[in-house]
């Protein structure tokens, strides 16, 4: 359908004649009609008189029917888009108005026609719009099929916030833009970084992941940029740095907020100049590695506190993507559980096909401090324990059981098992110990040294207790 809006009735009839048989044409001859128009189907293009745009700027009948223009053509263009969001816009005007018409095209109108309108000219313009529409349709198809079949289960979501994140990731993946992933530990920043690389033009080149928080401060520069033989004690041979290994591909800098100020200066230099030199070397080395950085800390707050360089923050924050925590996308829990079970069944061959409604309800009640990683680890544990086709609550820790959290109901449940007081006391001590370790590991993002110091025990004692209670430090990172 074409909508033609012009006060020039002779031009309107000429256009009708030229386009008969090709388009269904709807027309109006004053701005008031255009504002009030309610089309019965999709509109491909609006051919609109330039004067109408001025009168549309107010988007109301009084403004539209005013004898003098009441607003800018740009405001009128926005009003037109609001009325017909999917339509292309072609401006019609006399030759004396060309300066303003060209300016309007620069503001977003698709094309223009000059009075008197020649039939061949309008056909050419419409054919060009159709060709552009077909191309956009093909690009849309490619975008829809963007994620390969092997990763579609990882990108299924019912969360509007997560859909927005994935849409932005699709848009950024084919580019070389620097991406900053933010969000709590365990939300899936590493998995998203790999997906972006896999669907980029660099997919056949290396993907190099660097956990910045796990590198001793004295070795950060050597790890990232390499070193020459003899550069320092223990440097018995030349070592290539991660930026050099990732040349042409992607380097993923996880927990970038843990870098020292000295390392931040070096990283800023590489991002700005695309060159570096190995420790102990003098030769400049060019890098074409695409950088994806991730942080589970608030880098803006760190900048305010003087713990993170402001210039580095803005250099990293070219294309920010914030991944929501699992507690804010609980509608995805059934999809995530299903995806994890598909993977586990493929790896281990045991047929566990889902979780009972009661189990999914219980999982939805939990706050998930460890986010998706914690859910994945618990599902894997439940899968291993399961002897049936469905996961049930008995395969999950006590905190997921309906009675958990109520001392009276817990006491009643324990008493019903026939435990003695001593046994019940030991049971309660174990539950409290596990919950305490869970909370402290969450607080310190799974870091063993800090967790042990907080708990007032040795790292060896902590590891033994974690093994006893089935706690994995990776679930808290």
From TrEMBL:
Record PANTHER family: ALGINATE BIOSYNTHESIS TRANSCRIPTIONAL REGULATORY PROTEIN ALGB (PTHR32071:SF113), TRANSCRIPTIONAL REGULATORY PROTEIN (PTHR32071)
UniProt organism field: Oceanidesulfovibrio marinus
Q: Which InterPro entries match?
A: AAA+_ATPase, AAA_lid_NorR, CheY-like_superfamily, Homeodomain-like_sf, P-loop_NTPase, Sigma_54_int, Sigma_54_int_dom_ATP-bd_1, Sigma_54_int_dom_ATP-bd_2
Q: Which UniProt keywords apply?
A: ATP-binding, DNA-binding, Nucleotide-binding, Transcription, Transcription regulation
Per the database record, which ranges form the Sigma-54 factor interaction domain? 155-384
* One Pfam family recorded for the sequence: AAA_lid_14
Q: What's the protein here called?
A: Sigma-54-dependent Fis family transcriptional regulator
């Amino acid at each position: 359908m074409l909508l033609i809006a012009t006060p020039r009735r002779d031009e309107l009839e000429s256009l009708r004649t030229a386009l008969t048989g090709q388009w269904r044409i709807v027309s109006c001859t004053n701005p008031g009609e255009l504002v009030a128009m309610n089309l019965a189907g999709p509109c491909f293009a609006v051919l609109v008189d330039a004067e109408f745009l001025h009168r549309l700027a107010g988007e109301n009948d009084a403004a539209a029917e005013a004898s003098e223009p009441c607003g800018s053509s740009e405001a009128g263009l926005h009003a037109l888009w609001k009325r017909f969001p999917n339509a292309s816009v072609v401006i019609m005007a006399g030759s004396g108005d060309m300066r303003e018409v060209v300016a309007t095209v620069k503001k977003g109108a698709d094309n223009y026609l000059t009075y008197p309108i020649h039939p061949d000219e309008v056909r050419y313009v419409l054919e060009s719009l159709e060709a552009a529409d077909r191309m956009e349709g093909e690009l849309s198809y490619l975008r829809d099929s963007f994620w390969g079949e092997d990763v579609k289960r990882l990108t299924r979501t019912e969360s509007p916030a997560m859909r927005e994140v994935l849409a932005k990731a699709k848009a950024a993946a084919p580019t070389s833009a620097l991406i900053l992933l933010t969000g709590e530990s365990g939300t899936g920043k590493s998995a998203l970084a790999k997906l972006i690389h896999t669907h980029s033009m660099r997919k056949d080149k290396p993907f190099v992941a660097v956990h910045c928080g796990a590198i001793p401060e004295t070795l950060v520069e050597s790890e990232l940029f390499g070193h020459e033989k003899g550069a320092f004690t223990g440097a018995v041979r030349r070592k290539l740095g991660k930026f050099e290994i990732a040349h042409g591909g992607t380097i993923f800098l996880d927990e970038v907020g843990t870098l020292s100020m000295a390392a931040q200066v070096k990283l800023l230099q590489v991002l700005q100049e695309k060159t570096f030199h190995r420790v102990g070397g003098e030769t400049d080395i060019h890098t074409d590695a695409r950088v994806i950085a991730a942080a589970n800390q608030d880098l803006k707050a760190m900048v305010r506190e003087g713990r993170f360089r402001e210039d580095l923050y803005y250099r990293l924050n070219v294309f920010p993507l914030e991944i929501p925590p699992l507690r804010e996308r609980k509608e995805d829990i059934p999809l995530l559980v299903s995806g994890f079970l598909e993977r586990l069944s493929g790896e281990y061959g045991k047929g566990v096909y889902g979780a009972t409604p009661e189990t999914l309800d219980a999982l939805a009640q939990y706050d998930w401090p460890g986010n998706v990683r914690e859910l994945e680890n618990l599902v894997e544990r439940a899968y291993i324990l399961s002897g049936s086709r469905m996961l049930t609550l008995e395969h999950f820790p006590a905190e997921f059981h309906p009675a958990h959290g109520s001392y009276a109901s817990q006491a009643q449940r324990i008493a019903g098992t026939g435990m003695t007081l001593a046994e019940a006391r030991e049971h309660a001590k174990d539950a409290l110990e596990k919950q305490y370790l869970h909370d402290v590991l969450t607080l310190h993002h799974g870091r063993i040294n800090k967790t042990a110091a907080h708990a007032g025990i040795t790292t060896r004692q902590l590891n033994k207790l974690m093994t006893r209670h089935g706690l994995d430090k990776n679930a808290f990172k």
